[in-house]
Amino acid sequence: GGVLQALCWELQKLADELAEKPRAHDAVLLLGEMVAYLADWHTPCKAVARQFAAMTSKHADNQLQGEVDKAARAADEVAHAEMLAKQCKQRMLALLCYAAGPLDAQDVGHMISLMVQIKHGDVYLGQVPELQQELVQLRVLCHNTICRRLRDIQSRIQLHQLTQLCLVCCRLCHLLCPTDLVVPCVEGLFSELAKPALAIFAIGCARGEGPSVQRREQEGQPASSACLTHRCTTAPLRELRAVTS
Question: What is the C-alpha separation between 203 and 195, in angstroms, rounded?
Fold first, then answer.
């Protein structure tokens, strides 16, 4: 018990130091997975693992996103692709912090969000040669993590947690889909999430069980907000099913 407590304390100190040093985040590749493994034996290590995941996710979503936007405004395709690749790498490091240890519904939501964002970033792998090999190797590790945790993920997709995971799907729509496609369907959905039937429907869409929007439109029927949600969530979540099947 004393050894695990000491390890947890030392890893916590390292996490605090690395949080202020984004250039040293490569260390999370080792430290994040290590502390996640220790969480199976010493519960307080889970909080440290989440701290490593949070710092890399935050760096991707804040500082690197700012660089991505800056390069996009300048129409600098080389810099844009490089920033997107670096952003994808940070998200991969974050996902590997969930490789072991106990999971709750919030953890599963973060894993789903990270994996879909990582898959979305695949298109940039070949555009940054100096990072390509490293990103490909990290991608394999991420797939292994999802595969190892698949039973834990599935066990959290229960009726009482559907609404929380549905919110994750909606946020991904806002992030990855074109604005003119997302706005009319997702904003209304947030106000409807309290209705269990719609929550069940949205997760059914994520599983590929939703109705065909195209068939309804071909028959001249207006697509409801739920049907439009199916259209918005299917593309990114198809990627999730591809790596978890």
Answer: 13
CB atoms under 10 Å from CB of 1, counted, come to 7
Residue that has been written with the tokens 């994750």 in this structure: 168
Per-residue pLDDT of the chain (245 residues; tens, 9 = 90+): 588 999 999 999 999 999 989 889 999 999 999 999 999 999 999 999 999 999 999 999 999 989 989 998 998 888 888 899 999 999 999 999 999 999 988 898 889 889 888 888 777 667 778 888 888 899 999 999 999 998 888 787 764 556 666 666 666 666 666 555 544 444 454 444 444 444 444 444 444 443 333 333 344 443 333 333 333 334 434 444 443 34
Q: Let me know: does 68 contact 83? Beta carbons within 8 Å.
A: yes
Q: Does the predicted TM-score (pTM) go above 0.90?
A: no
Closest of 107, 81, 85 to residue 95, by C-alpha = 107
Could you give the count of Cα atoms lying within 13 Å of 163 in the half-sphere of its Cβ? 9
Tokens of 132: 């390509």
Contacts of 204 (CB under 8 A, 6+ apart): 210
Helix, strand and coil percent figures for the chain, each rounded to 5: 80, 0, 20
